[in-house]
Amino acid sequence: MKELYRSLKRGFTLEESVASAQRELVQGQELRLEVAVELAVKILRTTYYDAKALRKAVAGPHRRRRRARGVWDSWFPPYLQERNPTYRFESAHIDS
User: Fold this and answer.
1) Which of 53, 4, 60, 61 is closest to 33 using CA atoms?
2) What pLDDT digit, counting tens, does each position of 29-52 carry?
3) In which domain, by residue range, is 60 found?
């Protein structure tokens, strides 16, 4: 997981970060993207929809959603979302 976060922080795509993290695994270990989806939902909810974030917000609800969607799409590219509904922004129910 450390390598996954390091790669994401360096600006790599989610796919590149997952590949890098998988190279660090030893036999018998695995990295599941479903965990990444749950983590991504928590991050975006905290960043864009948490009560504390809303008090500080200068952006309205449409702009917050658009920004959250942009971040989501950078983590889970649209082609991945099209192939697997688990990764769709709408499936995550972030703003609910």
Assistant:
1) 4
2) 876 666 778 888 888 887 777 766
3) 33-96
